[in-house]
Amino acid sequence: MVLAENVRKSFGQLEVLRGINLQVHRGEVMTLLGPSGSGKTTFIRLINHLETISAGRLTVDGQLVGYREHEGRLHELRESEVAGMRAEIGMVFQRFNLFPHMTALQNIMAAPIGVRREPKSVVRERALSLLERVGMSDKSGAYPGALSGGQQQRVAIARALCMEPKLMLFDEPTSALDPELVGEVLDVMKDLARSGMTMIVVTHEMGFAKEVADSVVFMDNGVVVEAGPPGEVLVNPQHKRTQDFISKVL
Ligand code: ADP
């Protein structure tokens, strides 16, 4: 589903990704770990077309991100093409980013109606069943301001799912939450992982990584230091940098 080959990204003189190689297969859950500033957010923003790569090759579901190959040449994608690709990728941020003037249900319905031009009645059915899936059926009419952080994040996940994405990206989805609200969001994410969704999750939640991740990638300073199944990377890390990091967050 995602294939990164020697992906590099610079902001001016600062090279923040220095040759990333990794792959995520369909139905797999990958967690990305690493100290602040190691390039995790930048990497998932590249996948979602929020930044463009400086060098290397990045594909999602076999399609190049940002470019189209035609007769051996690369052409930048048109805005409509980028929008089409982005519509198939769901992203959940640290801050829930719900529209404050819309109810939970309206938030979830907005993109399928506005972007995909789907009939309202169809979207409504799907949105209601997603609200149920994230345990928020009784809050469909509530505005974000009246919801806890955990509830807002669950609505944000339902909103992303309502576009029926083939890939879900999570950027530290629980790190802005009060500790007692983390579990309810992780439970929704675990349920999603078990349903077969392909997911890339930037998180420091080791329990989540151990329980549901197929692979754990430890990044530092713009490179992948170590990658493998959680039973290896988290339990028996080979590199000193990984060992130090894990001993600090556990
Ligand atoms: P992480 O998610 O691992 O904390 P980030 O991907 O957010 O790391 O950041 C990696 C580095 O890139 C940091 O040094 C950050 O300051 C820098 N960076 C991120 N976005 C930008 C930007 N738009 N312009 C300049 N520097 C940036």
UniProtKB/TrEMBL annotation:
SMART domains: AAA
Residue span(s) of domain ABC transporter: 2-246
Assigned keywords, A-Z: ATP-binding, Nucleotide-binding, Transport
Record bears the keyword Transport: yes
SUPFAM superfamilies: P-loop containing nucleoside triphosphate hydrolases (SSF52540)
GO molecular function, one term: ATP binding
InterPro entries named among the record's database cross-references: AAA+_ATPase (IPR003593), ABC_ATPase_HisP-typ (IPR030679), ABC_transporter-like_ATP-bd (IPR003439), ABC_transporter-like_CS (IPR017871), MetN_ABC_transporter-like (IPR050086), P-loop_NTPase (IPR027417)
Keyword Transmembrane in annotation: no
UniProt cross-references to PANTHER family, sorted A to Z: AMINO ACID IMPORT ATP-BINDING PROTEIN, PHOSPHONATES IMPORT ATP-BINDING PROTEIN PHNC
Family, per entry: Belongs to the ABC transporter superfamily.
Name listed for the protein in its UniProt record: Amino acid ABC transporter ATP-binding protein
Organism: Ornithinimicrobium faecis
